[in-house]
Amino acid sequence: MYESLLNYPSSLFGELERWRRELDDAFGVSGLPSSIRSVAAGSLPAINIGRTPTSVEVYAFAPGLDASKIEVTLDRGVLRVSGERAPSLPQPERGKVNIYANERVAGRFTRAVALPDDVDPAHVKASYKDGVLQISVARREAAQPKRITVQ
Amino acid sequence: MNDKTRVATSEPAQRTVLPAVDVYEDETGITLLADMPGVPRDQLELKVEGDALSIEGGVRALTPEGLEAVYAEVRVPRYRRTFTLSRELDSARIDASLKDGVLTLRIPKQAHAQPRRIEVQAG
């Protein structure tokens, strides 16, 4: 409600904000629904989801984790991945270490995605390789396509 | 510094994304860490050309047969980033390791560029 008070009519950033809104309007971004669990771009880990006739495959791009400390839970159809990444930058001792770039996110993270209704929570497999956590959830047999013979 | 004019070369048409990096320097060299999840060792390419260090890696094929993409945040399966090195760095002795999708590069300084303590003679 008071957001507009922060935008000075003649300031450069006020103008950028106006352009951003116009672009959002022009490309129809602002009106699209987003998942209630969607996170800001660049959060750890990025997630890709795919579907095969027999399983749902979730890929979490989470580099540099200790595989034994990754937690994966599936509760009421919501898959949660959480873990922690230790900071890799050394403690800056005065005058000894200069830090130039610190783009890699560290700390605790959790991401959650709702899976389709037909998944079978009893058959979940997870593996971690090259910094990618792959979670494979089987789909119930009833949901798998069947060929019906015509008499 | 490079004062020669660089002629634009035709870049490969393949799309790439910038990997997130950490860079820090201590007395003996520079350490660079880059997040490149999904890149196996044989898909990683490190190049030093003149004073340019480039890191590039392709994500291994993850998809099993018959996979239909439902949702994708990682859409470009290739990372690439280039850095300009300075002269006191020894690009011939760069150490690289790749573990769990994190590339670690150690770029040492030339031996003569490392700080030396100069003793003051009493007398």
What does this structure look like?
The complex is a heterodimer of chains A (151) and B (123). Chain A is built from one helix and eight strands. By secondary structure, chain A is mostly beta strands. Chain A has two domains: 1-32; 35-89 and 101-140, Immunoglobulin-like, CATH 2.60.40.790. In chain A, a hairpin with a 3-residue loop joins strand 1 and strand 2. The termini of chain A are far apart. The model of chain A has no long low-confidence stretch (mean pLDDT 83). The mean pLDDT of chain B is 85. The radius of gyration of chain B is 19 Å and the shape is elongated. Chain B is an all-beta fold. The relative contact order of chain B is 0.26. Chain B has a domain at 21-61 and 68-110: Immunoglobulin-like (Sandwich), CATH 2.60.40.790. Strand 1 (46-51) of chain A pairs antiparallel with strand 5 of chain B.
Q: What is the overall number of helices of chain B?
A: 0
Shape of chain B: elongated
Distance between the termini of chain B: 42 Å
CATH domain class name of the domain at 21-61 and 68-110 in chain B = Mainly Beta
Strand order in the sheet with the most strands of chain B? 1-2-8-7
The strand order across the widest sheet of chain A is 1-2-8-7
Q: Specify the CATH class of the largest domain in chain A.
A: Mainly Beta
Write the layout of secondary structure elements.
The complex is a heterodimer of chains A (151) and B (123).
Chain A: H1 12-27, E1 46-51, E2 55-61, E3 71-75, E4 78-85, E5 98-102, E6 107-114, E7 119-129, E8 132-139
Antiparallel strand pairs in A: 1-2, 2-8, 3-4, 4-6, 7-8
Chain B: E1 21-26, E2 29-35, E3 44-49, E4 52-58, E5 68-72, E6 78-84, E7 95-99, E8 102-108
Antiparallel strand pairs in B: 1-2, 2-8, 3-4, 4-6, 7-8
